[in-house]
Amino acid sequence: PGRDSVGLRVPDHPGALALLAAAGPLAVTSANRSGESPARDDAAARVMFGTRVAAYLPGSGADTEPSTVVDFTGAKPRVLRSGPVAWEEG
Prior knowledge:
This protein is an alpha+beta fold. The chain contains two helices and two strands, in the order H-H-E-E.
């Protein structure tokens, strides 16, 4: 909020990658309500969101911590949230 930028995510899930390859980029959010813990799999997301979500990707799950978030809008990249990708790997 309050930024003139967007966040991009590339999932590490074969089904999600296949969906992106077939459909192209998708505008989606994390599977949680603001301020709440994320749903860790598609079953938990169904409980959290029910019929308010049109489709769920079966077998999807968050086996790792939330995504690493890096801000590339300034002169130097800046880690906003540490996650499974170490700064040294980028």
